[in-house]
Amino acid sequence: MKKIIDLLSDELKSAFTECGYDEKYAKVVVSNRPDLCQYQCNGCMAAAKEYKKAPAVIAGEVVAKLAGSTAFSKVEAVNPGFINMNLSAKFIAAYVKEMGKHEKFGCDESRKNKTIMLDYGGANVAKPLHVGHLRSAIIGESIKRICRYCGYDTVGDVHLGDWGLQMGLIIMELKNRKPELPYFDDSYTGEYPAEPPFTLSELEDIYPCASKKSKEDEEFAKAAHEATVMLQNGHRGYNAIWKHIMNISLADLKRNYDNLNVSFDVWKGESDAKPYIEDMINDFVSRGYAYESQGALVVDVALDSDKKEIPPCIVRKSDGAAIYATTDLATMIERQKLYHPFKYIYMTDKRQEMHFTQIFRVAKKTGIVPEDTEMDFLGFGTMNGKDGKPFKTRNGDMLRLEYLIKDVEDAVYSKIKENRDMEDAEAREIAKVVGLAAIKYGDLSNQAVKDYIFDIDRFSSFEGDTGPYVLYTIVRIKSIMKKYEQTYGNDVKTLSDRMADFLAPEGASETDLCLLLAKFSEVIESAYAELAPHKICKFIYDVANVFNGFYHDTKILTEENEAKRRSYIALISLTKSVLETCIDLLGIKAPERM
Ligand code: ARG
Asked: Which residues pair with 40 in a beta bridge?
């Protein structure tokens, strides 16, 4: 199904060609002066140069050609040479009707049979989650859903940080606390205990403690480094501890991601790169890509065209330890083998940009990833507290997801209780769904690259550009539909059936709603192309506002003319479906009531 803007451009193209002008000047855009017209074409200005005529003359000729078109209720040439257009109600109605019957509301529904590899989440095992991980999960989940909606196959991998220095730190701290454990006895050859030597809460205490110690105590730091290398080289006891850490942490992480309604197709981590590392490094060396520099192995990645310095990428440290770049590159080898993606999208804090620039270049240079594979890095800004510093919870702790979610849930709960007469249990249930929407919408409605302030009061408000406001609008439509069915008989119909009843829009707000809904496919495609969920947020906020304007202006249920009433119901059903599709792309759900 064509986009509305392309249909209009087609009309203009024929008119331009019939008048003897190149169709390249016929581009139609949404009006930036909605008070004057809905769409406009500014191509006559450029055409004037080529054809050495006044722009107004060209515009006049084109407009005269368009006079007979049924697409427009108004086409006019205005000085110095713009073409302003309003669409006819009939044209709008036909488009909206078709859109409502289309499986994806006008978006290209074809299956692309191409895979996109998405790397998001990125939690570090046994280390506390930080706000960057929350953002990565929320943004990644949304981007994955958008890619899928656009017809791509997707593989979402959490890519856990499970192979780095934190493991050596934990092992050494554990050794200090419980030296008698068999893992530390090199002469021990028996089976290691199946029971882990710590609980989750002990583990949560061990890491921060070890991390602090390593900053103060050089000996300890050195030992932790060594333990990391030994772990990576297969030390039996350390690997057994590592498995315990993984088991305990993973269960906890899965629970956290579940609570966020964020899911992964693949639960791999840095450690899964292990089987590929040695061959990869040998290959880099033998083909002359990697060379030694101050004991480390590096690959040059600078280009003449660089505006800032891109230092060589360290692919192995002097102590032989695999580092972030090593595991990321080796992971690509596996991803190429298993999924052969045409595009990679990595989502982390934007402070990691240099790392990704470097590894993308190494990957292309060494041929791990084919030259024509797209490699995107979506770096996002920081979620700050009201003090402008990275967000901490009320008690000043690092982010504990549970607490953060709970705080927002409580805020929503009190709002519901203030405004509604509702049982506690139901209010709690609803606050859960709406609270999560408040967090996600609060995050996704900002352009990802920007920092934003996490403001519970604002995010949980039922008014303004917030998740709860959008959900409230959906719930309002659901309740109108329910009343409609109760009053006029339970005529359960599909959206497509309802759309058959849609008549041409009459009032201004009805027309506005139609025109806005008709932009759905453009919005989704640009959200995909620019990896920009905030464009979907902007769209649904606009739709919610325009819908609420229409609702305010129109007696829907009490409209006496049956045909009109049915037409209204068709339009609001479409509005509901479009909004529901959009929030689903953001990873948000709507409750039945609120
Ligand atoms: N674990 C990393 C961190 O906490 C994020 C991982 C991102 N993904 C990747 N392939 N490097 O910073």
From this structure: 29, 84
Helix (H, G, I), strand (E, B) or coil at 565: helix
Cα distance between residue 86 and residue 80, in whole Å: 19
**pLDDT < 50 positions in the chain:** none
Bridge partners (DSSP) of residue 41 are: 28, 83
Residue 269 CA to ligand 1 center (angstroms) comes to 9
| Among candidate residues 506, 528, 549, the one with its CA nearest the CA of residue 90 | 506
Does an H or E element contain 290, and which?
strand 290-293
* CA nearest to 257, candidates 134, 118, 371: 134
**Contact predicate 557/499, CB 8 Å:** no
Q: Which of 118, 120, 159, 166 gets mutated to test ligand 1 (max ligand atoms within 8 A of its CB)?
A: 159
* Pocket-forming residues, ligand 1, beta carbon under 6 Å: 119, 122, 124, 159, 161, 328, 346, 348
Nearest CA owner, ligand 1 atom 3 = 122
CA 110 / ligand 1 centre spacing (Å): 33
Query: Closest residue (by CA) to atom 12 of ligand 1?
Result: 122
Query: How many A from CA of 316 to the centre of ligand 1?
Result: 17
CA of 289 to the centre of ligand 1 (A): 25
User: Can you give the pLDDT at residue 395?
Assistant: 64
Give the pLDDT of residue 148: 98
Return the ∠ at Cα 514 (arms to 513 and 515), rounded to 5°.
Answer: 95
Which residue has its alpha carbon closest to ligand 1 atom 2? 122
User: Measured from the CA of 124, which atom of ligand 1 is nearest?
Assistant: 1
Q: Residue written as tokens 């770096």?
A: 379
Which residue, by CA, sits nearest to atom 6 of ligand 1? 122
- DSSP, collapsed to helix, strand or coil, labels residue 410 as helix
91 Cβ contact list (under 8 Å, min separation 6): 70, 71, 72
Task: Return the pLDDT at 216.
Answer: 96
Contact in structure between 473 and 547 (CB atoms under 8 Å): yes
User: Which pLDDT score is estimated for 342?
Assistant: 98
Give the C-alpha separation, 323 to 316, whole Å: 6
Amino acid letter, residue 247: N
Burial of 489 (0-12, 13-18, 19+ CB in 10 A): exposed
The length of the chain is: 594
Query: From the CA of 358, how far away is ligand 1's center (Å)?
Result: 14
Ligand 1 atom nearest the C-alpha of 331 is 10
Helix-, strand-, coil-residue percentages of the chain, each rounded to 5: 55, 10, 35
Q: Residue with structure tokens 């464009």?
A: 535
Q: Return d(Cα 262, Cα 254) in angstroms, integer.
A: 9
Give me the DSSP letters along 368-390. SS-TTSEEEEEEE--EE-TTSSB
Could you give the 3-state DSSP secondary structure of residue 216? helix
Q: Return the ligand 1 atom nearest residue 352 CA.
A: 12
In eight-state DSSP terms, residue 308 is S
Mutational test site, ligand 1, from 352, 358, 359, 362, max ligand atoms within 8 Å of CB: 352
Which three-class secondary structure state does DSSP give residue 35?
coil
- Number of neighbours of residue 419 by Cβ within 10 angstroms: 10
Domains of the chain: 4-87 (3.30.1360.70), 120-380 (3.40.50.620), 435-585 (1.10.730.10)
